[in-house]
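Recap from last week: sequence in, structure out.
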Amino acid sequence: MIDSKNWNIDYLGEEWEFKHIILNKDFDGVPVATLVRKRESINNERAILYIHGYSDYFYQTSLADSMENNGFRFYALDLRRYGRSKLPGQVWYDSRDISDYYEEIDKSIAEIKKDLPNAPVTIMAHSTGGLIASLYAAEKGDSLRASGLILNSPFFDFNVGGVAESIGIPVFSAIGSVMPRMVVNRSVSPVNCMSLHSDYYGEWQFDTIMKPIQSPMVTAAWIRVIHNGQKRLQKGIEIGVPVLIMCSSSSSTGSEFSEIHKKSDTVLDVAEIIKFSASVSGPVKVVIIEDGLHDLVLSGKNSRDKAYREIFSFLL
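Predicted structure tokens:
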């Protein structure tokens, strides 16, 4: 039995708690999303809603601490079939349309408003979350219940290039409509997580079931969802609130770890992020973080300090 009424102690420790959000039935039954927050906070005037990326979940307690220490009540959302929200029998990250995720964003903001009725909410989103949040904000228009967006390396385009991008992605996207669970390939090299996890070359700890070092095989349905979302964004969207878009100064590739992977985006092509940021109309600021990782707030100290300076300059 899923408890959707109460906040419960989270696996991150006694100072953290989570609450499941029951969602409407979709293609695979009744999914849940999960909201996470600190059990105690003195902040009640401003709030952050954080949305993770692909093959990911919320574990960035240092990010939450930075927000809380600067006067923001911090909440994080684990999307349906991700992280804390994955139910037995479900396929990790399975989806049919990017707009499906709008429901849990709506319900998360409603939950925040129960706690903080008058607090403006800024959505902070990473990678795939950045694509979702951008399209969500554009679709909501004047009814958007958020005062701004912070996009950390948003997934505005596939990082494949050549024939794989011009032919392969559209073909697999089309297959996804009739054979949604057809397995295609792995989407992310393990060097991304290796650059983060302290058991390898990084500074951070996370659950390697909810965020595996080697990301799972992706399905045709997942490619279709992302591809269709990216096409919508690349045609041009308008967001009526301030938007901060951040990315690293460089990208790198490879399946064997090297030092360059500790100071570059190993997942996305930063040139494509910058290019398609121009597709977002409105009060948009684009910032490049020198030597940043894909998740900029988990970069080396100098780079993450720069990222935080930009974030708080935008927020405060």
